[in-house]
């Protein structure tokens, strides 16, 4: 046995003569939250469908808690929230979730589950009257049924307002806390940057990066930006440390990670000439752009 709830090893898949997944290796451990990033057509949805057993692979292997995708055991252990979620419009939220519970053999408190996802006031309304965001919340309630070993979330915040997005990530944290391995396919870079443990980036069917945010940053070697706001004379600061004048009152420099502390010592030596310092390390958007372009070169 292994603590890797989801193991994807050297997976290859083609559509006709065109490869759509090429040597994809990606593992998600018990209780880990992994973001899967990539442009449309990068292979994210195909990979998720392969994990679900909905589409066959032509090489490599996928295991869900040591079970083969599509097997009865794998289906019982896996929850899935698709981006384009759809339910029978004539059913109420309570009826739909009760049906899901019966199919899965679970006996949860349906009203409490719907309250947890913010649908307490709509549990007996027909789903046909729900907004897209409300249907997304109902889909999340279905993910919460039982204790899945693996949760696959495809653009889970689609259609949700900012407060609902925050609520969703709190629920994802709860899932991970109870031991669920969570794989989140998303375009929302600023969201997953702070709410996941690891980030995998796909490009043209390949995983081109897979690491923590700090690890990705170290490997990319992107520079940190330091902006110094002058108390009196920005020209004086620029003469001492170089850099670029910003808005007449500030100076901005860029430095490698290993040079950051030396740059800060040089700045603090200016004493009262410095009013404030802002340090901006490379963000996920910068890293994503770096790794997505890397394979094109």
TrEMBL record:
- The answer on whether this UniProt entry bears the keyword Hydrolase reads yes
**In which domain of life is the source organism classified?**
Bacteria
Q: Does the keyword Chloroplast apply?
A: no
Residue ranges annotated for the ABC transporter domain, each copy included? 6-229
Record-linked InterPro entries: AAA+_ATPase, ABC_transporter-like_ATP-bd, ABC_transporter-like_CS, P-loop_NTPase
Keyword tags: ATP-binding, Hydrolase, Nucleotide-binding, Transport
GO molecular function per UniProt:
ATP binding; ATP hydrolysis activity
Q: Per the record, a Pfam family?
A: ABC_tran
* Documented EC number(s): 3.6.3.-
Q: Which family does it belong to?
A: Belongs to the ABC transporter superfamily.
> PANTHER family attached here?
ABC TRANSPORTER, ATP-BINDING PROTEIN
Name under which the protein is recorded = Putative ABC transporter ATP-binding protein YxlF
Q: To which species is this protein native? A: Shimia thalassica
Gene symbol?
yxlF
């Amino acid at each position: 046995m292994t603590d890797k709830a989801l193991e994807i090893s050297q997976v290859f898949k083609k559509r006709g003569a065109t490869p759509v997944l090429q040597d994809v290796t990606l593992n998600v451990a018990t209780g880990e939250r992994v973001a899967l990033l990539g442009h449309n057509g990068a292979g994210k949805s195909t990979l998720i469908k392969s994990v679900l057993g909905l589409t066959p692979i032509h090489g490599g292997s996928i295991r869900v808690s040591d079970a083969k995708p599509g097997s009865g055991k794998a289906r019982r252990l896996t929850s899935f929230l698709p981006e384009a979620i759809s339910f029978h419009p004539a059913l109420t939220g309570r009826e739909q979730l009760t049906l899901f519970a019966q199919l899965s053999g679970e006996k949860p408190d349906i009203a409490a589950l719907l309250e947890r996802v913010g649908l307490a006031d709509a549990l007996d309304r027909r789903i046909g009257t729900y907004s897209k965001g409300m249907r997304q919340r109902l889909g999340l309630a279905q993910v919460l049924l039982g204790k899945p070993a693996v949760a696959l979330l495809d653009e889970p915040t689609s259609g949700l307002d900012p407060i609902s997005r925050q609520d969703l990530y709190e629920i994802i944290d709860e899932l991970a806390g109870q031991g669920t391995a969570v794989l989140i396919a998303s375009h929302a870079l600023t969201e997953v940057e702070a709410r996941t443990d690891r980030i995998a980036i796909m490009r043209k069917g390949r995983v081109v990066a897979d690491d923590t945010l700090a690890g990705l940053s170290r490997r990319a070697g992107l520079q940190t930006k330091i902006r110094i706001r002058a108390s009196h004379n920005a020209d004086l600061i620029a003469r001492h440390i170089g850099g670029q004048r910003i808005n007449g009152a500030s100076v901005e420099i860029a430095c490698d990670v290993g040079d950051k502390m030396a740059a800060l010592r040089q700045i603090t030596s200016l004493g009262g000439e410095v009013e404030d310092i802002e340090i901006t390390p490379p963000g996920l958007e910068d890293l994503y752009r770096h790794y997505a372009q890397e394979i094109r070169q």
